[in-house]
Specification:
alpha/beta, seven-stranded mixed sheet, 11 helices, 43% helix, globular
Length: 272
């Protein structure tokens, strides 16, 4: 008999994990790369765009600055508050709502473009995510995602977290959204075009060494913050050693600072 996950409990735990720390502060070092990726997607002013898993607005706010009609949703209420505050401070016309990637509160065909940059990939029922993306995107519209691959630095970080904080049983690993064949199974039937490209997320740089970057992640990044607070002293020390080893292994800087790159799979699909 296989274990069936209690999805409500899984989502509640996921929500509390991502709301831990301070993602707005954490994401500041990665936001220049998010803007670079967004620019490459060539979303036009006036298009209606839904950003699923929008965080504190790292892609939604720059898109709104460029005249895109932005709606952002995220499961973490504190991130939505930060995104709203940012939009208000810049007097941008952008809407941000607490929402679930598996049950989007919008009519069919509401948006010209659906995007998700390292957001919706973490929802526990990926087939429902795919169904909802196809449902709320208009025919002929675009579905664009950036998802960490299992092999890249972020994928390895989440794999390491999973060794110490085991994921729920029978929930598919989020980095499977970074596997080409899996994506074809999830989105292929509802799209007329499905372009999959492996890319490197533009380097994000910290002006301090890897061990201090681990401290920064432990304070501000929900999954690592939660792991540090949940583990007993001995496994916590082992976890820290493993994470520091990863950060050091993938560090491209040689001057005592830290510069990281992450492989991701870019999905650019046209809705049937």
């Amino acid at each position: 008999m296989t274990d069936t996950p209690n999805i409500d409990a899984v989502k509640s735990k996921m929500k509390s994990t991502w709301e831990a720390g301070d993602y707005g502060t954490f994401a500041k070092y990665m936001e220049p790369g998010a803007i670079e990726v967004l620019t490459s997607w060539n979303i036009q002013p006036g298009e209606k765009m839904l950003d699923v898993g929008c965080g504190a607005g790292q892609t939604a706010i720059p898109a709104a600055r460029n005249g895109v009609k932005v709606t952002g949703v995220d499961i973490a209420a504190n991130w939505i508050e930060q995104a709203r505050a940012r939009a208000q401070s810049e007097e941008l016309e952008a809407t941000f709502e607490v929402g679930d990637a598996e049950q989007l509160n919008f009519p069919d065909g509401s948006f010209d473009v659906i995007i998700s940059l390292f957001g919706a990939m973490f929802a526990p029922q990926p087939d429902k995510v795919a169904e909802e993306f196809l449902r709320v995107c208009r025919p002929g519209g675009r579905i664009i995602m950036g998802n960490w691959t299992p092999q890249g630095f972020p994928g390895q970080v989440f794999k390491t977290i999973g060794k110490y904080i085991p994921p729920p049983p029978n929930v598919q690993p989020p980095p499977l959204w970074g596997d080409e064949e899996t994506v074809r199974q999830r989105l292929g039937q509802g799209t007329s075009s499905l372009k999959l490209t492996r890319r490197l997320y533009p380097s994000w740089h910290y002006p301090f060494p890897p061990e201090q970057v681990v401290d920064f992640f432990g304070q501000y990044f929900g999954p690592i913050h939660r792991a540090f607070n949940a583990l007993e002293e001995s496994p916590k020390a082992s976890f820290r050693q493993d994470i520091e080893r990863l950060f050091t292994q993938f560090n491209r800087a040689t001057d005592g600072t830290t510069s990281l790159e992450g492989e991701f799979l870019e999905i650019d699909a046209i809705r049937l």
